[in-house]
Amino acid sequence: MKLDRYDLKILEILSRDGRITKSKLAEAINLSVSPCWERVRRLEKAGIIEGYSARINAAALVRRTPVWVQIELKQHNAESFARFEALVHDTPEVTECVAVGGGVDYLIKVEADTVDAYQRLIDTWLTGEAGIERYFTYIVTKTVKRPDPGFSRDDFTA
Q: The HTH asnC-type domain covers which part of the protein (predicted)?
């Protein structure tokens, strides 16, 4: 699907404010309401817009201890990776996980109630069948920059 400047602007605006009214969105991109809304529906139907959600400030609800962990698995085969990734998906304290190349296999972000709760989680993984060879723990002392879920049309060309 080829996107033009109007589509990219729609994505940029909706990524920052999914609750914007149809008329305000149309005004912001310089189109009338009907053609603008047809473009939104087309982007939704194409799967480019997957949904709309609210950003929740979890720290305002519950104080969590963020911990970044480097994980290296004992074995490097599809079964080991699948088993570990299933474990990650089934662990609500894991809020982010990426597979990486280099000296480690995964970087994960764990948000536990306390450092002790984090360590109990890791101990469970080590005594279970997670297949962890070694891990390195990094306690977050300050968040310098948080990911912005916003879309920037400057990142793409139409």
A: 3-64
Backbone angles phi and psi of 106, in degrees to 5: -140, 150
Q: Model's pTM, two decimal places?
A: 0.61
CATH number, span 58-139: 3.30.70.920
3-state secondary structure of 131: coil
Q: Is the separation of the CB atoms in 6 and 14 below 8 Å?
A: no
Per CATH, the number for 5-54 is 1.10.10.10
Per-residue model confidence as pLDDT tens digits over 97-147 = 999 998 899 999 999 989 999 999 999 999 998 999 999 999 998 888 876
